[in-house]
Amino acid sequence: MINRERGDVAKKTNVAVIGLGWPGREHLKGYLANDKAKVVAVCDMNTDLAQQLAAEHGIEAYGDHRQMLKEAGVDAVSVCLPNFLHAPVSLDALKAGKHVICEKPPALDAKQARKMAATAKAKKLTLMYALCQRFSAETVLAKDFIDKGELGEIYYARAVYHRRRGIPGGSRSWFVDKARSGGGALIDIGVHALDCAWWLMGTPKPVSVSGMAFGKFAHLAAEGTTFDVDDSAFALIKFANGAALQIECSWALNLPGGGTIQIAGTAGGATMSPLKIHTERNGVQIDIDPEVPGRDAFAGQTAHFVECIQKRKTPIVSAEHGVQLMQMLDGIYQSSVTGKETRIR
Ligand SMILES: NC(=O)c1ccc[n+]([C@@H]2O[C@H](COP(=O)([O-])OP(=O)(O)OC[C@H]3O[C@@H](n4cnc5c(N)ncnc54)[C@H](O)[C@@H]3O)[C@@H](O)[C@H]2O)c1
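Output (structure tokens, whole complex):
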């Protein structure tokens, strides 16, 4: 019960969303469903879109994030902009004293992610990355099985995310321009599979990467666009604890589309989408087919961000995880160019 006379109404975190494409609107929905957050503003350079959403929810609309950071009275922001704006806009927000959750990929490269992490640390602010698969019902359940020891010592994972044909285009052609995206299929969708598998493995420290990235479908990109990114990538990542992760992903590949994550340990294994736990009982091999509870990944993600701000906790997708993820992605791209294994320090 809230005793209003005593004035102990729990303080809500004032939030705003910058960038109102599909992921931005999912962040917005997540906050609106959270009684510990109060959405005060939205921002998009498409001011018609910002005004329409603001009018729907009785909040302020901005076309310029700097003006919003100055005027809107926000404690925290979601940065849901094209990849090349992740670092500069997150840094603007952190320097203005705001907590930040930034969409995937963390940045264009590890150098930018390091700067974001250092700024958040210096300012004592929360910086979290929106790797939403960590918050899906399946992943939460699989992680619980793993944390309770069901798989034993994990030493191998496979992360697969293929689209047979699915190169982003139209108004989103920045996805295929390396200067604005940082890369193609690997940094866009491979990062989801990689992060989810790495999280289930217990985020071991990456030490080396050997990979190949291909760009074979530039002719499918919309006319007049710059296409200088990978449309498929394949890599093996080795970790300090002796474990290995194999990743394969594509926006275009002449093989069936689809994805999975598989985790192998000394006592059991797990396959995702749909979740199955492979184990032994009474001396025989069995597969457990768990009932997965309904859960909205974006709502879980924004709720975790708000909780971390209010309880001063480090988010599960921390600033440091953002740096390590970018080191793995940078390492794959570098290995593909040099033809050699990339060491990660
Ligand atoms: N978590 C997920 O599953 C998921 C899914 C899709 C995209 N994403 C990520 O979300 C980010 C945005 O992707 P998207 O598909 O929405 O891109 P998009 O290009 O469709 O939309 C981005 C929005 O940002 C706005 N915008 C662009 N520059 C701006 C600026 N300087 N100031 C204010 N607004 C600006 C655009 O008008 C647009 O409404 C990307 O980093 C992408 O990788 C995540």
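Confidence is low (pLDDT under 50) at residues 1-9.
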